[in-house]
User: Which sequence fits this backbone?
């Protein structure tokens, strides 16, 4: 049994001079994120829960994922401005329960978190709407995840 964690960067935001927390995703970002969500579904992923940053563009991205997967959402300050790897790690279910979770957030923190989970310097950047797939087959902890795959939105457009 395994636990899968997908780290997903928010969709492309609108070009705006608004305060960063209030920047929505663009129509192009919505379209790309819907395609990416449908692609992840076609690849066989089915999240038990979708966690997201409270910043608007991450919330809107998570809402698209939730619509496609019909999965519950949970907002976490730990994925936004108050990023906290320890608290996020504690939310990852044990591998014995065979769950999949999505975490929707921002760069560069999601990439750094992926590196910490795998114990390797695998990721320098995640494209908007990009998804990193990690898997735990034993203990949940830093350096214990295996990198499985990276899904790029460029391959879908």
Assistant:
């Amino acid at each position: 049994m395994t636990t899968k964690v997908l780290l997903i960067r928010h969709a492309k935001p609108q070009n705006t001079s608004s305060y960063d927390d209030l920047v929505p995703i663009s129509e192009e970002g919505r379209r790309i994120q819907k395609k990416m969500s449908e692609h992840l579904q076609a690849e066989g992923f089915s999240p038990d829960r979708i966690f997201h940053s409270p910043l608007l563009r991450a919330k809107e991205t998570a809402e698209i994922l939730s619509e496609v997967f019909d999965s519950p959402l949970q907002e976490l300050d730990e994925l936004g401005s108050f990023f906290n790897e320890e608290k996020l790690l504690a939310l990852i279910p044990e591998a014995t329960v065979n769950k999949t979770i999505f975490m929707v957030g921002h760069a560069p923190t999601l990439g750094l978190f992926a590196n910490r989970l795998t114990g390797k310097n695998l990721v320098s950047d995640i494209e908007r709407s990009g998804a990193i797939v990690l898997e735990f087959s034993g203990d949940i902890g830093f350096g214990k995840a295996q990198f499985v795959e990276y899904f790029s939105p460029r391959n879908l457009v």
Notes: The first strand starts at residue 3 and ends at 9.
